Amino acid sequence: MTAKILDGKKLASQSEEEIKTEVSELVSKGINPTLATILVGNDPASETYVRMKRNTCKKVGMESIAVELPESTTTDDLLATINDLNNNPNVHGILLQHPVPSQIDERKCFDAIDIEKDVDGVTCLGFGNMSMGIDAYGSCTPAGIIRLIKHYELEVQGLNAVVVGRSPILGKPMAMMLLNLNATVTICHSRTQNIETIIKNADLIVGAVGIPKFIKTDWIKHGAIVIDAGFHPEKCGDIDLERMDEISSAYTPVPGGVGPMTINTLILHTMQSAKKLLTN
Fold first, then answer.
1. pTM of the model
2. In the annotation, is 218 catalytic?
3. Based on the structure, what is the number of domains in the chain?
C-alpha cells in the first residue's frame, strides 16, 4: 500500500485563498488585519523568514508592520517596543523573530506580548491555556501539523505518539496538542536512552530535534504516521525519508510538508485575531 503524502504546500495554498476572502470581508467592514514583525539584529536566516511572512501577508491582502531594531538593542528597549504594539489597536498580531541577540532576555520579551496578539503562540500563558484546552493560539508549527492531520482525516486517538525534540515552540506544544487529541505521548530528546527502541514502537512520530536525518529509516515501523518538522540546508529534514512511501501509512515530504503550514498558520491566526473585533 502506498503511503498518503501529507501535502502542506497544497493545503497552505487552499487556505490562503480562504484567508484572502475573509480578509477582504473584514476590510469591507473597516478592519485591516495587521501583523507586526519585530526583527532584532541582522541574522540573515531571520531576515529571510520575516520577509517570507510579510510577503504572505501581502498575498492575502493583510497589512504588515516591519519593526527592525539594531543588534545593540536591550531587553528594556525591546519590551518598550512590544508594549507600544500591544497598545496599538490597529495591530492584531505580534511576531518576535527568534533568535534575538544574546544580551536580551528572550523569554521575558515573549511573555510581554499581549495574549490576544500572541498569534505565534510563544507566551507561557498561551502554552498553558492550549495545554489545558482553553482557547489560545498554539505555536504555529505544531498547530500547522495538527491542521494537516485533521485535513487528511488521520485518526490520532489511542495512538502511541513519539515527539523527538522538546523546544518550547515545537516539541513541548506538539506533545500537548497530540495529548489533547487523546494520543499517548512520549517526548524524546538528546539525553533519552534507548531512543531507537522507543521510536520503533511509535504509531505516530514527529521529528523536531533539529539534526539532519537523525531518525533513521529502519527505526520506523511499518504503517506509522511520519511527520518531519525539520528543514536543513542539505534539503532534508530530521528524518531519513528514504522508502517512506513503502514504510509509512502517511508522511510529510521535505520540503513541502510542514514548512508551508507554519507561515500559513501564523497568517490564519492573525486574521482570526482581527475577526474577534467583530464580536467584541
1. 0.96
2. no
3. 2
